[in-house]
Design the sequence.
């Protein structure tokens, strides 16, 4: 059991009222709120620790560098990676672009994505294919949002350079059996690289990149209690010096002359320019925050909210839930029959409940279901059953108003 | 009636709700429901206003220098907003439409719909009405 009261006290924003109602924040899939330990780390950084890293000989710079690199170690531990496999980026989208822009697959190569993907895990690959006469292929899904894994056999050919899959669907919450999928991919074509989008998994469950055996793993800080503008690109050690550099500049080099530049090995070759230091420090604090609660406690608590909420929504005749099962992360994507998600979301907001409405940057998935969008409620560690009750009550009132 | 007078009329119509936002939205929803139907043939791709989370179709015509709008939306609150806009702009000249300040939106407590973060695109809607007015009056 987690102590909700104690946890909520660590999130100052949860005391906020919106539209004269206490805020019920169920838009965690878009971004999570931040605990005091993260907020304080930013204030502390600028009050006591700020200097540019990796270059200065002075004490403050050395301390800031140590702080930055120890943050890298914390993040690496968090997903069971090595420090030299963690590249700091601006977020998941940035991480995927770094991989797609740095991939020197042969012209005409194929890239596979799934029907579930967020636009951020489609567009960089679509662009790569457009620029390299490549072919983008799509792994289909079943009606419950699960992947048609059997189709991998037909889709993967000797030209398949990479398969990019989400770990957890941002729209449906469906958890893909990544470990099995990767085994399968390797057995079909051992040269096919695998990129996993962990934006919606890392905030909610224990992730072990070694165990998954993926080549690339990407996620964002801001969805896991860390500051915005932080992200991680994990690259398997054996691949990190093979990925091409697509953005370059200060901090990435051994020597520079007009004739030839020699780059450093490892993560730093990809981190050109002064990074978002205080946010990376905050990201490490967020990992520590999650560790202090325990990843399995987080999953368990969120899942209990999912069960509790989904049961109540299923009792409402006019509600249609997509991926209507419990074998998923704490995401409920639904519609109210005859109502537009925008209307429902607008009224929920008036009752103080923050949810997301629309296509959730997954238009191909919306096309699959033949809908314009959904209403999505996503839970985090600080949410409570009482808030679910407020949400369900507000939803009932909203439906009544609309009819 | 000029734009200003219609705006005043709407403001007093909403005044009775005071702080009761539910009443206000119920009224807005009713306005949406009673919006005259757009001719199906005018629900074309070109008439869709981009930048809205809900789809909005707007058809604009000009008669004797006065603009006339018909519209539809798949979201009822958006449709209520369109209904208000049409009520304010219908039968007005392009000049009056373009120069209108539309202060009533704030005064009736619907300012939140003007925020760029709102995906319903009231702003896009107003821009489109003004652009149509300019285009057709030239």
Sequence:
């Amino acid at each position: 059991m987690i102590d909700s009261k104690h946890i909520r006290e660590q999130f100052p924003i949860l005391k906020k009222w919106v539209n004269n109602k206490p805020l019920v924040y169920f838009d965690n899939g878009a971004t999570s709120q931040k605990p005091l330990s993260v907020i304080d780390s930013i204030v502390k950084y600028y009050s006591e620790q700020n200097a540019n890293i990796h270059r200065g000989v002075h004490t403050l710079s050395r301390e800031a560098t140590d702080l930055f690199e120890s943050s890298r170690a914390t993040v690496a531990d968090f997903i069971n990676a090595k420090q030299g496999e963690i590249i700091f980026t601006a977020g998941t989208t940035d991480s995927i672009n770094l991989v797609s822009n740095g991939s020197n697959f042969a012209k005409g190569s194929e890239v596979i994505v799934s029907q579930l993907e967020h636009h951020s895990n489609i567009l960089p690959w679509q662009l790569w294919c457009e620029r390299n006469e490549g072919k983008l292929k799509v792994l289909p899904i079943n009606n419950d949002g699960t992947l048609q894994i059997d189709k991998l056999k037909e889709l993967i050919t000797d030209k398949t350079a990479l398969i990019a899959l989400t770990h957890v669907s941002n729209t449906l919450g469906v958890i893909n059996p990544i470990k099995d999928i990767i085994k399968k991919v390797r057995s079909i074509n051992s040269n096919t690289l695998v990129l996993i989008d962990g934006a919606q998994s890392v905030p909610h469950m224990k992730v072990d990149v070694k165990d998954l055996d993926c080549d690339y793993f990407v996620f964002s800080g801001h969805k896991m209690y860390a500051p915005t503008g932080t992200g991680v690109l994990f690259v398997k050690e054996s691949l990190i010096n093979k990925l091409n550099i697509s953005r370059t500049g200060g901090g990435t080099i051994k020597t520079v002359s007009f004739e030839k530049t020699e780059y450093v090995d490892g993560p730093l070759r990809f981190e050109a320019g002064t990074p978002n230091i205080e946010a990376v420090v905050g990201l490490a604090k967020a990992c520590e925050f999650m560790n202090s609660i325990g990843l399995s406690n987080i999953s368990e608590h969120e899942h209990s909210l999912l069960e509790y909420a989904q049961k109540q929504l299923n009792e409402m005749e006019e509600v249609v839930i997509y991926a209507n099962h419990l074998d998923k992360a704490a995401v409920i994507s639904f519609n109210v029959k005859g109502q537009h998600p925008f209307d429902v979301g607008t009224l929920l907001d008036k009752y103080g409940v923050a949810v997301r409405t629309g296509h959730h940057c997954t238009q191909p998935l919306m096309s699959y279901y033949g809908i314009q969008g959904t209403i999505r409620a996503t839970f985090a560690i600080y949410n409570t059953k009482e808030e679910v009750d407020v949400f369900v009550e507000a939803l009932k009132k909203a439906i009544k108003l609309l009819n | 009636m000029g734009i200003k007078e219609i705006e005043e009329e709407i403001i007093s119509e909403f005044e009775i709700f005071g702080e009761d936002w539910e009443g206000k939205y119920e009224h807005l929803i009713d306005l949406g429901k009673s919006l005259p139907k757009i001719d199906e043939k005018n629900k074309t791709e070109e008439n869709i206003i981009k930048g809205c989370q809900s789809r909005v179709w707007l058809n604009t015509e000009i008669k004797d220098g006065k603009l006339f709008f018909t519209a539809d939306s798949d979201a009822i609150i958006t449709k209520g907003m369109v209904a208000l806009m049409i009520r304010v702009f219908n039968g007005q000249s392009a000049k009056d439409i373009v120069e209108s300040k539309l202060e009533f939106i704030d005064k009736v407590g619907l300012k939140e719909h003007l925020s760029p973060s709102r995906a319903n695109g009231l702003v896009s809607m107003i821009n489109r009405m003004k652009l149509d007015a300019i285009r057709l009056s030239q």
